[in-house]
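Bit of a strange request maybe. I'm writing a small parser for structure token strings and I need a real example to test against, not something I typed by hand. Could someone generate the tokens for this chain?
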Amino acid sequence: MEKAGQRAARTSVWLEGKARRGARGGGQPTGLDRERITSATVRLLDSEGPARFSMRRLAAELNVTAMSVYWYVDTKDDLLELALDATYGELVLPGPEAACEDWRDQLRVLARGYRALLVRHPWMSSLVGTFLNIGPNSLVFSRCVHGVIRRTGLPAHGLAAAISAVFQFVYGFGTIEGQFNARSAQVGMTPDEYFRDAMSAVSQAPQTAGLVKEAEDIMAARGGGTVEEVWERDFAFALDLLIAGIEAMVRRPA
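Reply from user aminoacidic:
Good idea to test on real output. This should exercise your parser:
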């Protein structure tokens, strides 16, 4: 029983009978709908990040009053959760006809798509760990991932771990890459300029110069003429390592 002064724990907009509701009832503002509000939320989060996002700021973007937005959602969290799922709708996913294709190729496509999504929308990273991710677009993505992992030949008890190994790696990689690009933009530099500036600073600082010197051979071997190329080489090799690990586990005797 809820105690006085306490609010019941919130679950998800997708579980509270609100996600499919067009509005609270009659008399809602004209010119607005859930899709338009969600699209504007994504645009604001892309341009300003979650820290500056508010219902009032969204209303100004839509050129309506804040109360007009409340006809369609109850809280800011509702909007954030709707925006998060909307981004999953940008993924290009394999259709049923792809069931006979090599699981390795499909896993690479899904992993690359998820990484690109996290880089394109850096604010996603914090929300992925905040909400349940059970919106319709997120569930379609999850089903595709499960379908591909099931075809690897891993035993059932290893499927969840394989999904975690691959997609938590992608989450971490995409988060760091996206935040690096966002930070570069914040200081008015390209990623390449920001990287050169950062490496120059740490190479000269007494507490980090030794580590930079020790890692010169590793940095040189990475190759790539730009930060983007380095990200790509590292990601491709790391993903190949994970796929090779799955193959090795499939061959390992029970």
